[in-house]
Amino acid sequence: MSQSPEVGFFHTMYHHCLSRIISLSSPSLPAESPPPPLPSLQDQILDACTKSDAPKLRNLLSTWEDMLMKQAAGSGGVKVVQCFLDRDPTNDGLDQKMLVTAAQYGNVSVFEYLLHKRPSTKVDDDVRSYALEGGVGIWKVILDHNPDFINWDFGEKGDLIAMTALMNNVSLLAYFLDKGLDPNRSQFFLIPTLKAVINMPHIKREIIDLLIEYGATMEKSEKALNEWLMR
Predict the structure, then answer these.
(1) In Å, how far from its chain's centre is CA 110?
(2) 3-state secondary structure 84-142
(3) For the segment 46-85, what is each residue's pLDDT rounded down to a tens digit?
(4) Is 9 helix (H, G, I), strand (E, B) or coil?
(5) Which residues pair with residue 188 across a beta bridge?
(6) CA dihedral for 17, 127, 78, 68, sign (positive or negative)
(7) For the chain, which residues make up each domain, given as ranges?
(8) What pTM, to 2 d.p., does this model score?
(9) What is the rounded CA–CA span in Å between residue 13 and residue 104?
(10) Nearest CA to 69 among 91, 38, 46, 43?
(11) CA distance 132 to 112
């Protein structure tokens, strides 16, 4: 199951705070010598071949293939992706995995190719979640494909406005607001988005300014939230 961006955000913040608390409360220790470097994946593959360790080799090759796939879809061109897909005639969902990766890393040309030229691909929840990291270019392709996706949300966890604001993505937030999304109808865990982000110290001032510029107010946000809860 792929991890959605909002879960990843809170996971990162939790561990950052936890590590900070531990560092402040722990006594200083003498510096230790760094551990020896781990063998590279290539070295591990060669070692497994030398030792005829077939189970380990299969696992390592699977990891290697996954790394190549992510590199091709995340930063390669269309011809590179075509070459990669042509190597596996069974496909087995590979083009959909590459679509998710292209969305995450903002590789617009590859994303557009996979969505329009590979009939088995689709814009599912994973694609839309990771597209929040990919940026405006990816979302332009998604909304050209299906304009209704502008209304996609996470239920009580939030919507496109809330998630983009929490990720401090100024350009993508401006894009969604320009598309007509109402910041007063945006909520994050049943808290109006404007109210939520104002109380978060990591949020950029530009995010709050944008929400206010497009009409967000505390009063209107609270009213819209109450209407949403009464539905």
Answers:
(1) 17
(2) HHHCCCCCCCHHHHHHHHHHHHCCHHHHHHHHHHCCCCCCCHHHHHHHHHHCHHHHHHH
(3) 776 777 767 776 776 566 677 888 888 888 899 989 888 8
(4) helix
(5) 191
(6) positive
(7) 54-151, 153-231
(8) 0.71
(9) 20
(10) 91
(11) 16
Q: Which two tokens stand for residue 140?
A: 């332009």
Tokens of 212: 């206010």
Contact 187, 162 (CB under 8 A): yes
Q: In angstroms, rounded to a whole number, what is the distance separating the alpha carbons of residues 156 and 229?
A: 10
**Tokens for 130?**
């990771």
The token duo for 136 is 């405006």
Residues shown for the chain: 231
Provide the 3-class DSSP secondary structure of residue 227.
helix
**Residue ranges of the chain with pLDDT lower than 70?**
1-39, 41, 45, 48, 53, 57, 60-64, 88-91, 220-231
